[in-house]
Description:
By secondary structure, the protein is an alpha/beta fold. Helices cover about 40% and strands about 15% of the residues. It contains 18 helices and 13 strands. It has helices spanning about 10-20, 40-50, 55-60, 80-85, 105-110, 115-120, 150-165, 170-180, 200-215, 240-255, 255-265, 285-290, 290-310, 315-320, 385-400, 430-440, 445-450, 490, and strands spanning about 30-40, 65-70, 95-100, 185-195, 220-225, 275-280, 345-350, 375-380, 405-410, 415-425, 460-465, 470-475, 485. The strands form 2 sheets. The protein has a 10-stranded mixed beta sheet, sandwiched between helices. Strand 11 (about 460-465) and strand 12 (about 470-475) form a beta hairpin. Helix 10 crosses helix 11 (about 255-265) and helix 12 (about 285-290) crosses helix 13. It is globular and about 65 Å long. The relative contact order is 0.13.
Amino acid sequence: MEKRQISQVEKRRFDALKRGFHRIAKEDSTPVAVHVIGLGKAGADVIAEMLHDGVDDLLEDSRVRFTALAVDTSDENLAPIRELAGKLPQDQVQVRTCALQVPSRDELFAMLRRYREYLKLEYPRYYWNPNYEPWLPADIEMPKPGEHVPRALAKAIYGHGYYNESRPLLEELNLFAQSVEAADSKSVVCVVFGLGGGTGSGIVVDLARHLSNVRFGRRSLVLGVGIAPCEGDPEEVRGSQLFPALNELDCMLDQDKNEGVIQVWGDLYRNPFTAGFIMVPQQPAWESTGNLQATHQRVDREIASFLTRNKGTDLWETLRLLNWIGAPPTQHAAARTQYGERWIHVLGYGDPEKGVSASQLGLKDSYKADFLEMRVAAPKGANLDSELAAVAGKLNEVFAPVNPPEMVRSKSKGGTFVQYVLPRVRKTDLQVFHAARKDYDQLSWTDKLMVHSWLLDLGVLLCEPALRFEGMAGECLWGCACWIVVPYEAIRGEELPQAIL
């Protein structure tokens, strides 16, 4: 296997990774607290799995608190969380749920007509656009219980819960932030949602902004965890809406693109995911089970294990490995590296006896990993040496990291987990990005509007070309000069400049 040529700077960086600069020293007694916000059914199910099996390990240290908030438009998906939360020590745990009310169309539009007022109070430098109109079509039909909620509508329902009258969602975010800040420990907040779902991916863009940039003032680490759909999921969650969903995240997490948004719309739209973003594919579980319910359960277990294993230390070390944890200027440059368009990190997992492939994880074969680390959790006494060596060899063969994959072991009370994070993935490395772009291009203009969310309240249709600035992205909904300083080609992911590649 031919190894890639690397610069001296890169070599020093990879050597630092191999020496384990990201590992937490045994003498470091500061505990790690992991807090979770679950959005939509996908996010709520992950919280339920954590409460069922995993939180106990986090709470062994009395200084640690666990805070969770589940948000959905269906209270039916939230009821199991309340039942499980009642069995946990209340002095260390705060678990709450928020069922977003789906208002009548008249109520929703009454709130939307005042949206400029809310944004002006939130951010005094907000540009008061005289052309503003609600972004939803006037004849939109409100969903019945259990029906799919388009992303643009989910954004409006979120706004109704956050801004209107009693503001229940604002209160929930305040309570969540207060509980997180009361933890006497290092803390990371994980926002878990389905990338293809209307509710989760539709509200995460505003909730993450309000949580990270407003409530926390960017003082706390906020990690995005997006669950990618599999072939067994309904068409409504694995089609065209993934194109704007991925591009919205791209314009947050790619620093250059995010600066192009901030240049027009201000600091309130700075990337809220201060701890980065991890994508979790469901396809490996689907290919193993062939059953959608079993697939979702398997993925929920993988995420719950990833977030809670080894009392949160595995997650913390992984974030350090991915170079997202802040470091003083005196620390090695590898600990301070920021990412541009390679902002996606993919959580891989599998059964030791089965193979590994890029396509199974939703990646193009051209993707190669800079570095790899296998995290293995197994019951005491389990002998998996030969199986794990085979997995490591296959990872080395398929993804060709500069250093051979490292292996970190920890004990597990509930089964065997073999996980690894594929770092620094571009959106164009994802097979689903290209498929979603093709589906998006076939939509009518109104349908394209309904699969967007972020920046709609500012009048910006992110994935369309700007009306008055040739070559730039961000069509204005109201025919004026709304836009973002991001090249349209960069949104499309077609023929990217060689400097970016």
